[in-house]
Amino acid sequence: MAIIEAPDSAPLALPSGGTVAPHQALGVFSRPGQSKGWRSWITSVDHKRVGVLYGASAILFFLIGGMEALLIRLQLVHANGTVLNAAQYNQVFTMHGITMIFLVVMPLGAAFMNYLMPLQVGARDVAFPRLNAFSFWCFLFGGLFLNSSWFLGGAPDGGWFAYAPNTNPIFSPSHGMDFYAIGLLITGIASTVGAINLVVTVINLRAPGMSLMKMPVFTWMGFVTQLLIVFAMPVITVALFLLLFDRNFGANFFNVKAGADPLLWQHLFWLFGHPEVYILILPSFGIISETIPVFSRKPIFGYPFMVFSGIAIGFMGWGVWAHHMFASGVGPLSVAAFSVTTMFIAVPTGVKILNWVATMYGGKLTFTTSMKFSVGLVGMFTIGGLSGVTHAVSPSDLQQTDTYYIVAHFHYVIFGGALLGFFAGMYFWWPKVFGYKLSEKLGSWHFWLILIGMNLTFGPMHIVGLQGQPRRTYTYNKGYGFDFWNMIETIGAFIIALAVLVFLVNVFSSRAKAKREHITVGNDPWDARSLEWMVPNPTPAHNFDEVPVVAHLDEFWHRKYGEDENGRPVRVKATDDVVQAGDPTGVHLPSPSYWPIVIAASLPLIGYGIIFNLGFAALGGFVLFLGIYGLGLEPSMDPDAAHPHDDHGGHDDTHDDAPAAADDEESHEEVTASE
Amino acid sequence: MSDVAIHHDPKPGEHGWTQTGVSNEKLGMWVFLGSECLLFGGLISTYMLYKGTALKGPKPHDLYDIPFTSVSSFVLLMSSMTMVLALSAIQRGDHQRCRVWLATTALLGATFISGQVYEFTSFVKEGMGYTTNTAASSFYTLTGFHGVHVSLGIVMLMSLFMMSVRGRLPQEKSEVVEIVGLYWHFVDVVWILIFTVVYLIP
Lengths: 675, 202
Prior knowledge:
Largest sheet of chain A: 2 strands, antiparallel
Structural class of chain B: mainly alpha
Strand content of chain A: under 5%
CATH class of the largest domain in chain A: Mainly Alpha
Distance between the termini of chain A: 37 Å
Radius of gyration of chain B: 20 Å
CATH architecture of chain B: Up-down Bundle
Oligomer: heterodimer
CATH superfamily of chain B: Cytochrome c oxidase, subunit III, four-helix bundle
Strand order of the largest sheet of chain A: 1-2
Strand content of chain B: under 5%
Number of strands of chain B: 0
Largest sheet of chain B: none
Number of domains of chain B: 1
Number of helices of chain B: 6
CATH architecture of the largest domain in chain A: Up-down Bundle
Distance between the termini of chain B: 48 Å
Shape of chain A: globular
Mean pLDDT of chain B: 92
Structural class of chain A: mainly alpha
Largest interface: A-B, 82 and 70 residues
Helix content of chain A: 55-70%
Number of strands of chain A: 2
Mean pLDDT of chain A: 89
Low-confidence stretches of chain B: 1-6
CATH topology of chain B: Four Helix Bundle (Hemerythrin (Met), subunit A)
Number of domains of chain A: 3
CATH topology of the largest domain in chain A: Cytochrome C Oxidase, Chain A
């Protein structure tokens, strides 16, 4: 309002400078205002709800991917199995890999990072709340798009690594690999937008006093993970586009007949693929770096080493990709160089393991379910890490390549590492998210079953792998000596399935019990250390009543405990005096919005259009265009929304929509430009 | 921002407060551009791998019209200057000039794109289609991706222009222009790289 031009100086007579915005952008939707019911979930921009949605969808996909795993194990239980034929087996093992990596482990990490990182840095939300919601819907629709391929002519069948030229239309004639390329492009947009969001959140929205070296280790690992996503995703985006253009528009990137280099795909894919494995594992490393100190009642051992080893892994992860290609003929120099870098990257990982053990050493250990899973991670990941070092030795790797030994290795690190860490995190933060604890008794069953199950399933794979059982192969003959161990593996797989069932029962029964008996968990069930516990359980929508001023690593702990003259911790304040009251007075939150889900829904439409009929793509493009402008022109805080405790009546209304346009262009650029 | 009448500095936890003093939107754009570097890195590497390999048909290097591309590169570079002028205009509160420079930037961008369309058409006429050989596929994909980026930039510029016309781009939101400018300059810088690596180095 302060800057209205004199109209007579404007020969074109264009108005300018006003800040009055129409409250219904494009007039399509009225602004959603519900706080309960399904509509409140699909329009929510609250990082906590988005986190819960990520987690719930990931568990749904986990069940699907788990069924695929059971099918694989049923097929391989005997020699010459007949449960699946070769073509079906290819689809099932491909979708198992894609689902578990892109639709389970990555989004589970995203669930924890979305929920916890803003809380741990003392922020009220992420930097771009609506883009955060967009990321989630984009991931969900990408995942559904990938899985819809089962019903539309066959799922991808070229492996999650999709080695071209093996995935050219000649060898993979169904639409499966198109679903793969487009589906991963869509989930890639989700990851990239989400990563930009969280990187900015960590850099910009840390509470006053929280320097980088006072951030909790989980947030640090999340930060490194998100940076890896920011830089790794565009590489696979390139590879996927090239594959898509080859398959659909006759380009020659992987067409060996036209002189293409068959290693191009492998280089692009693994340049993404190796940072990707650290994207999968680092969030779990972060999780147990939070749980182990709490249940050992000691601060994390060697915090700076923990942080810098995480950063080191993040950097070195870019220099090891060709160890996936030792058998492809990259040449002795490359093999030697990448052998060395691969052995070297075990060092920062070893530092972490040492630090966890040293944190527990001399601590007052409490073996809650969360702690059991954390210690389980340390043990199982170490096994997977050691077999990983054996791959670094290239002569030995040439024997192991394409056998079940490799399968054993990456299941020990992804299942025994990432997934156990996520379960540790779920048992630990469940009261924070939902306000009640999961049953420790069922949790114990869950842990022991999964530990036994995974060792029975993946342990024998080392043996049959070294005996030469090839991976990615739908059957084996009698008399090779694989029968016994394969039977054990299948039994193990069903024990894992039982463990997952116990977990689901635990979720529902604990919830019912908490409701029935009105159990409240209190504000600090574990005597925890970091900032997220400074707000009541479950977390109120606005997070912090007042943004805390941080003076220490483990700020919450330091507010509860002081030291006596011998340096031992002494309670100085009761928990309830430290935890905030949960009073939203004076807090303005970003308003919910329909646009994120609308924009996300347009992307699978475009995908179907490219595969089947360009008409869908045109429709999808139109919705995308409309959605981006809708989101861009809509103020991020609804000026019409009633603020129950509105305390700033004295303000000019410029203030109310000032955030709008700042978000505007930004959001629409990111979305358009990252496609 | 400081010369705007009604402006109060946000406190921690309020919208607009940041630890670094750089706004979320601007930082987000920087991170996004970092990500884009790897996208073009991948595409340029693919082109470098394939630029000399063609089992049939002409290679891009046989067809380049360096004087023509130099002129269109110059046009794109000039658009970075007009982008800066647009930003400086809106920071001064001169909406008239801001609109003029935004439109000029978009027009220069469009000129560049027209040049690219002309170049592609003439290459196809000379026998180098998208599917002719590996070098052709990688050349068209790389420059095509860049062209799409420029086109999206033009759409953003036109959106800013329309926002300004409809009075929704006041001086205190000049940062929006700055952020679009970051994107625009990035796309220009990428073109300098492409022009050097793809066209000039044999």
